[in-house]
Automatic annotation (TrEMBL):
It comes from Paenibacillus soyae. Its EC number is 2.7.13.3. Keywords: ATP-binding, Kinase, Membrane, Nucleotide-binding, Phosphoprotein, Transferase, Transmembrane, Transmembrane helix, Two-component regulatory system. It is an enzyme of class 2 (transferase). One of its GO terms (cellular component) is membrane. This is histidine kinase.
Amino acid sequence: MTGGRKQEIWILAFKSALLLYVVFRSYAEAGGAWYIASILFYMCLELTTHTVRIPLLRNLAGAATILFLLSVSDELHPLLFTLAPMAIYGLGAAFLRSPILLFLLTLAPLPFLPPDAQVTYGFIGAIGFLFQAALGEYERTIAAQKQTSEQLQADNLRLTKTLAENDEYLKQSAYTIQLEERSRLSQEIHDKIGHAMTGALIQMEAAKRLQATDAERSAELLQNAITISKEGIETIRQVLKNMKPLSEQLGVNRMKLFVEQFEGSHGLKTVVTFAGDMDRIEPIHWKIIQQNVTEALTNTVKYAGATSAAIHIEVLRTLVKASVTDNGAGAAKVVKGLGIAGMEERAAAVNGQVIVDGSRGFSVTTLLPFAGA
């Protein structure tokens, strides 16, 4: 059901209640065939006003309702004209936008009514005006909210489409980078290693032919082949070394990516900081740190009631320290559940330990010693 249709129903309900009041108050004095016919004709005019969709016909029906009530109230009962304020408001609203002018127009007939009907008319006119004005404001608010909702939906669809396009672009970019890297490696292997191996092979073939006739020259060629082969092997080692990222880069980048994803998924403001030589952290240490940080942040979201958390990873002389602290309520007594027990087990596997403190917020610190320390 549309907002305009709902407004029509509310107005009809108000007019029906008003009509019942007027009939109840005036029927005993003015009852009869003409009275009943007048009420029925009034109802027909009102239904016409609310069912016709053509504005001109609606306005004509509203004007006819006002004139009809004015004429029958003189002949039958003055109280019948108290049905007019709603019709006057409806007709005036089609031409006037000022609430003050509409209110004055609604009460305009007041001086021309009998004194005993003026109070009732003024009261009903004021109530009817406030009712329709409030109803109109409500409908405008609903319409504005609907428009805002539709705009937000459109923006959401547009952003979703943009994100999908960006995601596809990132995938294509990553694939293109992979192809370019493969092409670069292929060219580098061909230019450096391929040429070196080909040169070494030629030297060894020549040395083989000269082995029986010129042993000295054969030995020289073999030595050249060995030197070229060593250089080729060193080149292979250097290429592979350049391809493989440092464990420090893998661990730090993976931790930063995890924090960004966690913050986006749970709405917890999270920062991560590093100190010391991250390259000293071994892969097993990074794995334990990653798992313990994940567990600590999950507990923060579930139980701490915190709005932010901080992760700090520091490499000391003999150990690596990873701490997670939040600004939550903390706990005077820390009860170790499965989560904390799991963190302690992981740390103990490399002779490390976990320290939990709930005095100011909640903090979980993982200490992992280096091998031989």
